[in-house]
Design goal:
The chain is of the alpha+beta class. It has two domains: about 150 residues, Immunoglobulin-like, CATH 2.60.40; about 400 residues, 2-Layer Sandwich (Endonuclease, Chain A), CATH 3.30.870. It is built from 17 helices and 23 strands. Strand 7 and strand 8 form a beta hairpin. The N and C termini lie close together (about 10 Å).
């Protein structure tokens, strides 16, 4: 939900997802002599509890003044940005944010402007779409900061602490999302049809065993490729798909998929009285690493039409058809169309498709994604968990007036995209990274490789957002990696949701959380001498200049919030 309060000189704007709130401020331009030193931001919940959310940066003049012994003075913190965030919100809660513009010096400042905005975060379940994000090991500082977890491998924790750690890392994706979806199927009027690239996580398989006992039908398509069926000698490592399914008594209702280059789907179709009603989709593999290690997305759709398309696709998939046969059905279910001309609504695009594709050619569907991106007016946000296909580099290398924020799994991929970034103020690039040593208030971090024996270490999400704050926001999300193989060689599914502000707000707020989290870590990785974590607050009154510079990145970002569509009075 979007909110605004424009009643005062200090104008406030907010976008509320389920567990993250983005804030933007606007103020008449101060003169340098006015000594505008920053914003003070606090949050009050519906029970009256007040929390400062000013961040962790401080003023050097106070830190190094030996005469100051009061920690409240020495560690004074303000927000020196017109954009802020609350990453610790809860779903379906009402918060009032009070923002005060402070003028003066680091030691002595006073309120000159003040305003509040009242927001209510989105509930997990509402309407057709519910969206879930985990934290993962590297998606926040939480696992490192928690003294019980202490960056330890999961198997080294005692049983109670281990469960606490799993609950934290999976956030609400597992219990609130995945298990609630499964629990619906535990009646004799329900059936569940699954397609999973990796299905190895023991607790989930235990829940599937209950579904098998209680539901009318349960069937599973799984990847039979060697890469998903390795049984490592490490007793603490998960087994491959076949061994995992056999161990839980689910192999007899499972169907091996071998023909695709990568049988890469991660979806379930729920039926009631043999009629498809709901779908679970997204980027999350059913492994410990997928649920608790790397960052992932899950998308629950309550739409009989969409569920029917998934079931039609699944019914052929279970027979292990040729790529050509499955591609024909994929395109029959949803033909290629000009994505820029779609009406508002929900769509699903299955792969493989666009066969045959000439050697070296770009599949038409991938070109449609590019064309859709290039019609943006204000903002594009995109995550690349694997390859950075040249077709996307071409479009992002072009000078464009809209803002582009790209998040990569690997620094090497980000460097390719960064070729043009230094000369393009509207393109910002970051990549997954950890803080390798303690810096001021930040604890050293580890990756999923240490904690859950994960391979993908940072961002495994697969989505793109186009003008998320506009009249007709577009969200494209699913299992595909935005690559040529994901269109022509793999089994994949991608949901496209257009015109749904709730969906766009949830994805945008979580994308911002990930981008902001990885940004200083990425800078420190590529610029070891960077002071991104240690840079103190500005005391020369220069910090706000770029916000007022017409055409600057910060100026454009501010205007995007000011003119966002559908904002209600908060």
């Amino acid at each position: 939900m979007r909110y605004k309060n424009e009643d005062n000189d200090l104008k406030l704007y907010a976008v509320a997802g389920t567990q993250t709130v983005l804030l933007a401020f606007d103020l008449p331009k101060p003169a340098k002599k006015d000594e505008f030193i920053g914003f003070d931001v606090e949050r009050k919940d519906s029970q009256g509890n007040v929390r400062k959310i000013n961040g962790s940066k401080h003023f050097d003049s106070l830190i190094h003044d030996a005469t100051i012994t009061d920690p409240q003075v020495k560690f004074t913190s303000l927000v020196q940005s017109f954009f802020w965030k609350d990453f610790l919100a809860d779903p379906d809660q009402t918060y009032t944010y009070r923002v005060r513009a402070m003028f003066g010096t680091a030691r002595l400042f006073n309120t000159r402007f003040e305003s509040t905005v009242k927001v209510t975060t989105e509930p997990f379940s509402k309407g057709k779409h519910s969206v879930y994000f985990n934290y993962g090991v590297t998606g926040s500082q939480g696992y490192a900061r928690n003294k019980e977890f202490g960056n330890k491998p999961i198997e080294q924790l005692d049983k109670i602490t281990r469960q606490k750690a799993l609950d934290y890392l999976s956030r609400d994706l597992y219990h609130e999302g995945l298990i609630k979806f499964l629990n619906q199927a535990k009646t004799k009027r329900h059936s569940l049809f699954c397609a999973f690239y990796e299905i190895e996580y023991g607790p989930f398989l235990d829940e599937l065993k209950i579904v098998k006992q209680k539901a009318k039908d349960l069937q599973i398509v799984y990847s039979g490729q060697p890469g998903q069926n390795k049984d490592l000698k490490d007793p603490n490592a998960e087994k491959g798909n076949i061994s995992s399914l056999k161990a839980k008594g689910l192999f007899s209702i499972s169907h091996k998929r071998t023909v695709a280059n990568q049988p890469h789907n991660k979806f379930m179709v729920l039926c009631f009285d043999d009629k498809p009603i709901e779908v679970w989709s997204g980027s999350t593999n059913i492994t410990l690493s997928g649920i608790c290690g790397q960052s992932n997305t899950a998308h629950w759709v309550k739409d009989a039409s969409i569920a029917g398309k998934y079931l039609k696709y699944w019914n052929l998939l279970k027979d292990n058809p040729s790529k050509t046969t499955l591609a024909a059905l994929s395109e029959a279910i949803q033909p290629n169309v000009d994505l820029t001309k779609l009406e508002n609504g929900s769509y699903v695009f299955f792969s493989p498709r666009d066969l045959p594709v000439a050697k070296g050619a770009t599949p038409p569907q991938l070109l449609e994604y590019v064309n859709l991106i290039d019609k943006a007016q204000e903002l594009v946000c995109m995550i690349f968990p694997f390859n950075y296909d040249p077709v996307f580099k071409k479009v992002y290398d072009k000078e464009r007036s809209y803002l582009r924020l790209l998040l990569f799994e690997k620094v090497s991929q980000a460097k390719i995209a960064k070729d043009k970034e230094d000369g393009d103020r509207d393109l910002k690039v970051t990549a997954g990274a950890v803080l390798e040593k303690e810096v001021r208030n930040f604890i050293a971090e580890v990756t999923p490789k240490t904690v859950v024996k994960g391979g993908i270490l940072f961002a495994h999400n697969k989505f793109v957002l186009i003008d998320p704050l506009g009249d007709n926001p577009v969200v494209l999300s699913g299992s595909g990696n935005f690559s040529k193989p994901s269109i022509k060689d793999n089994d994949e599914n991608m949901l496209l949701v257009k015109g749904d502000a709730r969906v766009a707000d949830i994805y945008l707020t979580e994308f911002d959380r990930l981008f902001e989290h990885f940004w200083p870590r990425y800078l420190q990785k590529i610029l070891p001498k960077s002071s991104s974590f240690e840079k103190p607050l500005d005391e020369d009154y220069l910090w706000f200049a770029s916000y007022y510079k017409k055409g600057s990145y910060h100026n454009k970002r501010g205007k995007m919030f000011i003119v966002m569509k559908g904002a209600k009075k908060g």
